[in-house]
Amino acid sequence: MPAFHQCALDFPGDPNVSQQISLDDADLFLFSHAFDTHEAGEFLTYCLSALTWKQDFIRIAGKRVPLPRLQNWYGDPGARYGYSGLALDPSPWTSELLAAKERVEYLTGQTFNSLLANHYRGGADSVGWHSDDEKELGDNPVIASVSLGATRIFELKHRTDRRQKVLRIPLTHGSLLLMAGKTQQYWQHQLPKDHAITAPRVNLTFRTVTVAMDTSKQS
Ligand SMILES: O=C(O)CCC(=O)C(=O)O
Ligand SMILES: [Mn+2]
Question: 190 with 128: CB under 8 angstroms?
């Protein structure tokens, strides 16, 4: 049984608190109401107005391309993270983000030392297919993903087994999706564009950086 089953209050066993999403080669739990509507609304307002949002760029075929979303990396000092040639130094935790981290740790029975915050300004913002499998996250990373604002569809596709259908999970305001076990090894995920949506969404993915980043890969 994975370690996150052993949280003090045994929440993952309580169907009123979380539901296990049955998927081969993955451990997924959805906490639909990790934050109630009022809390989630206040937290969304806080995130949109008080967090520092950055427009980062990546290189694709020699071209500097803006990411289709704003983001920032928060964490303990030294919790460095990188992907697609981007090296991210952590901004310091704010008290509000720490309070959210405590809630997430309480619900999941896991601890986290960092957070990738994403701001999708509207339906044209997105994140493409990827796994959260960077070396600094270690083996079988546990990722706790909090959603605030517009409901967006989170898609998962198996990396090799084409018999597995794409799974689509609507991530609602105040929800928490826990991805653990072999999920990142066997599955990719994305948040596709949805031009019907105009409202913003904030996603906070709590993570644990376990090894120092290999900077030799960075361009
Ligand atoms: O916004 C989401 O729900 C997913 C974000 C994500 O996959 C990431 O930041 O790695
Ligand atoms: Mn991801």
Answer: yes
Ligand nearest to the CA of 203: 1
* Complete domains list, the chain, with CATH: 3-217 (2.60.120.590)
> What is the number of the ligand 1 atom nearest to the C-alpha of 69?
1
- β pairing state of 175-180 and 187-191: unpaired
Minimal-distance CA residue to ligand 1 atom 1: 203
Q: What is the pLDDT of residues 56-93, one digit of tens each?
A: 999 889 999 999 999 999 999 888 887 777 777 899 99
Question: What is the per-residue pLDDT across 153-200, written as a single tens digit (0 to 9) for each?
Answer: 999 999 999 999 999 999 999 999 999 999 999 999 999 999 999 999
Report the distance separating Cα 21 and Cα 178, nearest Å: 10
Residue closest via CA to ligand 1's atom 2 equals 203
